[in-house]
Please model this.
Amino acid sequence: MPTSCPAILIAAPASGQGKTTVACALARLHARQGRRVHVFKCGPDFLDPYWLTLASGSAVHQLDLWMTGEADCAQYLHDAALEADLIIVEGVMGLFDGQPSAADLAQRFGLKVLTVIDASAMAGTFGALAWGLQHYRAGLGFAGVLANQVASSGHAAMLENSLRDPAQWLGALMRNEALTLPERHLGLVMNHELGDAMVRLDAAANALTTTRLGQMTVDDLQAWAVDFDGSGVAGQDFPAGTLQGLTIAVAYDAAFCFLYAANICCLEAMGAKLVYFSPLRDSALPPCDALWLPGGYPELHAETLAANLDMKASITRHVQAAKPVWAECGGMMAMFDQLTLIDGKSYSMWGILPGGATMQKRLAALGPQQLELTGGTLRGHTFHYSTCATPLQATSRTRAAPGRTLRGEGEALYVSGSVKASYFHAWFASSPAAAVGLFLKNTDD
Model:
């Protein structure tokens, strides 16, 4: 039976326009008013969800018609509608960028689109851009447009007057560094790295109250209501008990923090017990049968990682005991002999895999990809600023997502003893049977 709930997709003409700030501000504003807010992130992203979770007070999951799958999206939206007062979906890149795009997701589920435009260097063109985004694709519902990085009330008036349809104006956020969420090479700075993370979110929410968007009442939100049909939406089919009795140690700290909540849920649904540890602070692995080293920022903590010789010895013993390791992206970088930074400084890492990783000034790889393993094909993506050089031969390589092309070869999967490593970030629920093979002994990929 359909379940109705106000739902909005927050998009922009490009990255860097401020859609994460606006999504966080809107979530924080309504959460502060006692409403139950569920937020989703469109497309692969590890960093925005940390801020969105802090703002909304609830876990944030990804929605992607290809990577997570249409059925998964339908299930999450329907389940959220059963208990939420407001659903917010933050888009990815520009509204029509990617295959599938945020616009594709909005159209598939009937979500209206709220566009955020950085208007700092424009006036009348604001109206043309808003009009183009609204009318570029037939059948895409629009909720309005919000101007960001506005210089003054006079500037805001020019922007509003440039719109052909005044009803589309949702207000202006003035230029204010206190509202900015800081960034680095892989995206937003983690919220726990800032002592004033909640202060920033509250400041953004307060600023939003000066706009028409921030002044919407519960009744006003009903203009965004969507009927999410739960009929035919089946729960994710995980092979229950496949990992029963298996304890997986998961690295989780400032250096290794790129974890999808859905990947955790997938492993636990198959019976695994997850225990967390910090390669930065701890001296040994917790008792475990398998090890998961996710991506993150080992390059920012290379000196500390190199100095923790006790942890290096503990991981070495784990590998020597032929216990499985899945090391993805940043996790793989730490497994090499060396890690070289942009300034040329080189640090000795864990020495499990021969060779080294070197940071680059430019993005080395980006995009949705898939990896064939025994048991199935894992969907996922790649996003990294380093390259690696190793005498190991790739056991296999990723392929581009359907409709996409790769520049050069796909990401290598390296297998050395019980270790599997790749720059590829896997979405476990896309093939639970394949994900199992990353954590069990004696699998032959």
About this structure: DSSP finds 13 helices and 27 strands in the chain. The longest strand covers residues 3-11.
